[in-house]
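Q: How would the structure tokens look for this protein?
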Amino acid sequence: MYECTHIIIVNQQYSFIEINCVLGQVKLPKYLEEDDISPDHLDGTKIKDTLLDIYGLLQTMAAGMEQVVWDEERDREEFAQKFSAAEKKLISVLCDLQMVIVGSHIKTRPDVTRDVMVEEQRNLDSTNTKLRDWTIFRDYMNTLNYVHKTLSNLTTK
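A: Here is the predicted structure in token form.
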């Protein structure tokens, strides 16, 4: 029973989190448990497209993290301050990334908005809220790992 439940939870995805699905032209080529990204994927990356892809991914994660922070603060959970701090750092990274994109005269894509997470996914019972928030945080960590590895690869080119 535990193993089946664990597999279901680990593989849980929400439609607004496009991390293991397609987000525009982006497909995140890794799961949290995987350490490496395919060398073929990394070799094909171009700085302009990579910056725009990462910006879109992080905007999507920001919409999810915003909801996690709201949930934590509403329920007065013990990790509310830590999630809030993570969200603020994510916003700071998004601002820095936007400055690089604009400063490099890269044509931007439409911004990802809060609407990416529909009301149905925002208003869940407490059990499903916990599962959704855990899934968002898991995908946030995976996205950060992907961003780090991808940008590190670009700096070595």
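Residues 126-155 form the longest helix (30 residues).

The domain at 45-155 is CATH 1.20.1260 (Ferritin).

Upvote if useful.
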